[in-house]
Amino acid sequence: MAHGTQTNTRLDWLLMKPLNRLSSNFKSCGPNAEYYRNRKGYFSLNIQTVSCPDLKIMDVVARWPGSCHDYTILKKSRFFNRLNSGEWGNSLKVADSGYANSLRIVTPFINPRNDIEELYNESIIRTRNPVERSYGVLKRRFPILSFGSRLKLQTTQAVIVACCVLHNIAIDNKDTDPPALLDIVLPDIKNMNIIEHHIDEGNARQQLIDEYFSHL
Predict the structure, then answer these.
(1) Of residues 71, 17, 22, 61, the one with CA closest to residue 42
(2) Strand order in the sheet with 92-95
(3) 117-149 b/e with 16+ CB inside 10 Å = b?
(4) pLDDT at residue 93 greater than cutoff 90
(5) pLDDT at 16
(6) Phi, psi at residue 120, to the nearest 5°?
(7) Pairing of strands 13-23, 92-95
(8) What are the phi and psi torsion angles at 208 (to 5°)?
(9) What is the 3-state secondary structure (H, E, C) of 50-112?
(10) Distance of CA 215 to CAs 110, 203, 210, Å?
(11) Fewer C-beta neighbours within 10 Å, C or N terminus of the chain?
(12) Helices marked H in the chain — which ranges?
């Protein structure tokens, strides 16, 4: 996608996506239990991860209750501060539609209006494919991330982070294809935060449309 681009924006992709919603049946949530009830009615954590094309997880935030919106978690994260400080230079981060477009974050169009926006969406989907695969690999490697935990909240959070660390170690050792779980079907939990955001701090998505995709 970056080859031959006419825009001044350097397309170094980090892929950002919530790890769906980890179904976590906590041993005890205390007086704030309802904060962890998500829109589907069960208790969970909403986990933010940042991944790269080699399937490694570069950043994970595992402390927010299931009722929190993806973009709220992003704005409160250290990753967001690092992103806005320009630590990664003039690069773009690809996210799903649960996030807002900005000067440094690009997401697909929910309702593309023409062929140019369709082409842009196709490119974003192809760029995100390795990340979608990384979540499948992670959940096959550690089924607890799909089927839920009966541990205490703090222990569950530590387990999630530990799973991400062990996943990265496996990737470093070229173990990218864990065995399939026989006779087990992992639940398909869709992103429940799909909403088109509009913010006025710059729009890299529109810049890509105007300076690159409209010339193809």
Answers:
(1) 22
(2) 57-65, 44-51, 13-23, 92-95, 105-106
(3) bebbbebbeebbeebeebbebbbbbbebbbebb
(4) no
(5) 57
(6) -60, -50
(7) parallel
(8) -65, -40
(9) EECCCCCEEEEEEEEECCCCHHHHHHCCHHHHHHHCCCCCCCEEEECCCCCCCCCEECCCCCC
(10) 22, 18, 8
(11) C
(12) 70-75, 78-84, 115-141, 144-147, 153-172, 204-211
Confidence band, pLDDT 50/70/90 cuts, at residue 159: very high
CB atoms within 10 A of CB 29: 17
Q: Write down the residue that tokens 């829109």 correspond to.
A: 39
Bridge partners, 44 (sequence order): 23
Structure tokens at 83: 């992103």
pLDDT at 22: 47
Total-model pTM: 0.77
Over range 193-202, report the average pLDDT: 48
